[in-house]
Amino acid sequence: MNDEVNRWETHLDLSQINKENIAKYLFKTFSKFNKLSLSDFADHLKQEFTRYLHDRKTLKDFEGDINNEGFSLIDRYYLIQNWLYAFIESNDHLIKFEKYINETAALILFDQIDYELIIAQDQLSVANLKGSHPVITNESYQIDFHSFIQKLEKFHEIDIPRFESFNILKEKLSTAYKKELKINEFEPKVLSSFVRNKLINDVYFPLIGTNFAKQLGVAGENKRTAKMGMLLLISPPGYGKTTLMEYLAKTMGLHFVKINGPTIGHTITSIDPSEAKTSGEREELKKINLAFEMADNVMLYLDDIQHLNPEFLQKFISLADGQRKIDGIFEGESKTYDLRGNRFCIVMAGNPYTESGSKFRIPDMLANRADVYNLGDVIGDTDYLFNLSLIENAAVENPAIDKIAGKSFNDFYALIRYIENREEQLPELEGNYLKQDVDDFLAVLQHLLKIRNIVIKVNQSYINSAAMQDNYRTEPPFKLQGSYRNMSKLVAQVVPMMNDQEINQLILTHYESESQTLTADTESNLLKLKELADILTKEEKERWEAIKKVFQKDNKHGALGKDDKMFAQLLEFNENLQGIINAISKK
Which phi and psi angles does 396 have, rounded to 5°? Predict the structure, then answer.
């Protein structure tokens, strides 16, 4: 018989059998019962089958077949199977016992073995289920223990390891691709010193928000003009154009793809990376095309566009139009990107008051599609908010101011109004402060307001001078700036016990340092600064008037008198003649 069993094992496909489960079954069965177990379903099927054969008087024929020594053990097993299949097919009410045929066939074949009868249900019906899952029929789920355990084992042994391997591979590929594309560099990182001042809340956000609503497709879906647009921010350096946009990108959950204009330069006229002449140009152009490839949740920010070629900027006209399409090159493949309906916005920023020697130029067709805002100038009647923002942004730089501003901006604003309006009664404050802290705040704030007023004058003079054509000038160009950055540097050095003279010296020292790069223009710029601060001495005032007079004379004749002696003599003769005419006229 052992030979028969060995041949049987050889005949079976053991690769389909879980040997570990068989071993566990045998161990648990013999350790508990010291014999093989038998389900009551298989025992019931055997009894029904035997009774059926007995009633049909075919039991002896059956026993003769399965005991025929001419048949091998395997042949007899399959013979019993066939008898059982035929029996169940002829008795429809026994179809539920079909899955116990193999166990019943083994039971009949090895009937001399003593079994432990196990009475237990291997099916369960879960009722009152709602849903459309394929396993739910008539709000009921039939659970078959054996098939469920097989599914569970497959899920645990095959599906889970494959899924985990897939996730590991996906993470590995994603990490490598992110590293290659430098995705982490596009996450906006807002400066800790950023202040959402009243100017930003009350003025910039409504203006910029309206533009973004159009660009991102939130507003006016049925209007052609609502599907187009671009935001153009201009201002001198130090007014927080980049910081503001990075904050908005962070708040709106957008990738912040910043393109550095000076790195690309004036020579590049295409966004094709293959046309770049340096590695820096190539990387910046790749970032532009990557932003198009990402397509969604992206803010494309072109910084310092005064350094870019106008022909290069023209490439973005169709992107700012209602079409929202642009041609690009990604990984060497030419593509046309249709960004309609995507959360994609384009922002350009630049300094129109550039000292690079080239004019600030942006194509008219692009400018017509843009909303233009100057962050360095007063918008409408918001001069108070603009002036206040200089103090708000610099508050964190001074410990005496930050002690109150860091706790309550309401107290901060109340004390500013108290100083500006010269109120007699100190306002009611929300926070609990030491009297010394309030006194220090008021003393420093007095100095800050004076510094702020001078910085504002410097800012406006810089803008007016930079925007003026040389032919119209009556005095040398003014190149000192009055930005948020200048204000922050000055505020950081103010202490409560300083007097007005020390504040004037602080301002003068700061701008003397700033003017060191102006070389030949240093003297005229510092004299203009002192004039704005109303601290010119008599000698300095005379010197300033002399400089302006010489400048006007040279500017009138294009400075030719410096190199042409004959022309210089004619100019001098003309001035003397004019003096004689004026003298005669007075008589």
Answer: -70, -15
Same domain for 456 and 363, yes or no, is: no
- Co-location of 317 and 337 in the same domain: yes
- Do 311 and 433 reside in the same domain of the chain? no
- What pLDDT is recorded for position 245? 93
Q: Same domain, yes or no, for 347 and 257?
A: yes
Asked whether 321 and 369 are in contact (CB, 8 A), the reply is yes
Beta strand 123-126 pairing with 141-144: antiparallel
- For 333, phi then psi, to 5°, come to -105, 130
Q: Are 377 and 351 in contact (CB under 8 A)?
A: no
Number of domains in the chain: 4
Residues of the domain holding 157 = 145-185
Q: Is the residue at 534 inside a domain?
A: yes
Q: Does an H or E element contain 373, and which? A: strand 370-374
Task: Quote the CA–CA distance of 511 and 522 in Å, as a whole number.
Answer: 10
261 within 8 A of 307, measured Cβ to Cβ: yes
User: What does the alpha-carbon distance between residue 48 and residue 95 come to, in Å, rounded to a whole number?
Assistant: 13
**What integer pLDDT is reported at residue 220 of this predicted model?**
47
Which sign does the torsion angle of CA 51, 55, 56, 61 carry?
A: positive
Higher local confidence (pLDDT), 378 or 269: 269
CA–CA distance from 272 to each of 218, 258, 260, 365, 556 (Å)? 31, 17, 16, 22, 47
Q: Furthest-apart CA pair in the chain: how many Å?
A: 160
One-letter identity of residue 574: N
Domain end position, chosen among 374, 400, 421: 374
Residues 200 and 340 in one domain: yes
d(CA 58, CA 65): 11
Pairing of strands 115-118, 36-39: parallel
- Summarize the confidence of residues 366-382 as an average pLDDT: 84
Give the Cα separation of 201 and 199 in Å (integer). 6
Task: State pTM to two decimals.
Answer: 0.67
Residues 165 and 217 in one domain: no
Please tell me whether residues 175 and 277 are part of one structural domain.
no
